[in-house]
Amino acid sequence: MNPETSSSTSITNSAPPHCQYRSASSRRFCRMAISDLDSGLCARHAALLQEDLDQADLSACLIGDIQEFRSADDINHTLGELYKLQARNKISPRRASVMAFTCSLLLRTLPALQQELHPQNDGLQHFIMNMPRPDRD
User: Fold this and answer.
1) Which one-letter DSSP state was computed for residue 123?
2) 0.85 cut: is pTM over it?
């Protein structure tokens, strides 16, 4: 049989055109068109999913038993947990970016916090001089 005369059928594997939202009893009743291809949901159900992600209480996962963020290790732990939650799509990207920015601010204040908690100024002033390097020919 030559390929020009053979009739072949191609099976297309396309996404279903209707929302894939399922109720608590696993029934699919939404017939709206899909607006978010990644989730397979219509605009209404995608917005509900996003709202659930934004309102979820993730404090137990993020901070565990950390009481205060006074070390880089504590902040690093929280950033790692934040990354895991975002990778599992349990937190919205916008919320994750705000939390990551807050962690960066916490990291920036650690040196000042350490200086305040453990002052090393024994009445002496410390000068840091930045002298130019000699020209090398």
Assistant:
1) S
2) no
Structural domain total, the chain:
2
Q: Which of 49, 28, 29, 30 is nearest to 38 (CA)?
A: 49
In contact, 34 and 40? CB cutoff 8 Å: yes
pLDDT in tens, 12-22: 455 558 787 66
- In a domain, residue 31? The reply is yes
> Cα–Cα distance between 99 and 32 in angstroms, integer?
34
Domain that holds residue 51: 17-55
% of the chain at pLDDT higher than 70: 66
Structure confidence by residue, pLDDT tens digits, 75-103: 999 999 999 988 888 888 888 999 999 99
**Cβ-based neighbours of 85, under 8 Å, separated by 6 or more:** 58, 61, 62, 91, 96
Q: Are residues 43 and 66 in the same domain?
A: no
Q: Which residues lie across from 41 on neighbouring strands? A: 36
Collapsing DSSP to helix, strand or coil, 18 comes out as: strand
Cα separation, 73 vs 9, in Å, equals: 59
Give 28's contacts (C-beta < 8 A, 6+ positions apart): 18, 19, 20, 21, 22
Same-domain status, 61 and 83: yes
